[in-house]
Design goal:
The protein has 13 helices and eight strands. By secondary structure, the protein is α/β, with parallel strands linked by helices. Strands 1, 2, 3, 4, 5, 6, 7 and 8 form an eight-stranded mixed beta sheet that branches.
């Protein structure tokens, strides 16, 4: 093949819009993809971080605090992975400990107390499964968040911006509106973990991603997520400013809609929304 034709073919391939669930998993993990604090800086007018769970300590993997977004005073909680090696280690690669979930809930209760909405930004491979986290009751911390968020008297908008891994994601994901960026994924387990269990080999991760329906399009059809946030062509990392603009518009739109409801309506609808998930009817044999 002539050099010019080869270069043109390579460029065309690079620009091809991704489509398969596995493609989207790879984009969700792209090292240059905008992270939680990137979006906080570009979407919110100001952010005052609050630290500590008032029990054990702070968790840098779960930045939380007070913010404003286009006139809405709110609280923001979310997972931060970190970009450089030292920052990744400090943030524990976005895998929060129990302190992170307890801190997030503490901040969400401030939202309830002062009549502010909650914006939860999800991007984690999963909660930290280490011995220390287990000793400090990571499962209990997540379970308690699920219960408390279900009844929290504050509007909640959650958005999956990258990885949405298992209970680590769901621990801040019980929301009135669950948004998901176009090239994110949301699942009970990673494709590699699923492949290791079902096929005894992680090389089948692509097949697992297809079977698990973990991408935004499938999850929207299953009514697990409420809205898909579009991204620039080839992913948010290609144009972070445009990605932030699209995300901000979606968050503000949903906050405006939730502001029109009474708190009783909001809590009742939230409870019913999650109760409906997984229901099915068996046909006659």
């Amino acid at each position: 093949m002539a050099p010019k034709k080869a270069a043109a073919k390579k460029a065309s391939s690079a620009q091809k819009t991704v489509g398969s669930p596995w493609d989207r998993v790879q984009l969700a993990r792209h090292p240059m993809r905008p992270m939680m604090l990137d979006y906080v800086a570009s979407c919110f007018d100001e952010f005052i971080e609050l630290h500590g769970d008032r029990h054990i300590g702070d968790d840098a993997a779960m930045p939380s605090g007070l913010a404003t977004i286009q006139g809405h005073r709110c609280v923001v909680v979310g997972h931060e992975k970190g970009r450089e090696t030292k920052e990744k280690l400090r943030r524990n690669f976005g895998s929060a400990n129990p302190e992170g979930y307890r801190k997030a809930l503490r901040v969400m209760r401030l939202a309830e107390k002062f009549n502010m909405p909650v914006v939860a930004i999800i991007d984690t491979p999963g909660a930290y499964p280490g011995i220390g986290a287990e000793e400090r009751n990571i499962a209990e911390a997540i379970a308690f968040n699920l219960k408390e968020m279900m009844l929290l008297r504050a509007p909640i908008v959650a958005v999956v911006i990258g990885e949405g891994g298992s209970g680590g994601a769901l621990g801040i994901g019980v929301a009135d509106r669950v948004l998901m960026m176009e090239n994110a994924y949301y699942s009970v387990i990673s494709p590699e973990g699923c492949a290791a269990i079902l096929w005894k080999d992680r090389k089948h991760a692509q097949d697992a991603a297809e079977a698990m329906k973990l991408d935004a399009q499938n999850l929207k059809e299953l009514e697990v997520v409420d809205e898909i946030v579009s991204e620039p062509k080839n992913g948010a990392h290609e144009d972070p400013a445009r990605a932030a603009e699209l995300l901000k518009d979606s968050i503000v739109k949903n906050l405006n809609e939730l502001a029109k409801e009474s708190m009783d309506e909001t809590v009742a609808r939230r409870y019913d929304k999650f109760r409906r998930m997984g229901r099915f009817n068996e046909g006659e044999a």
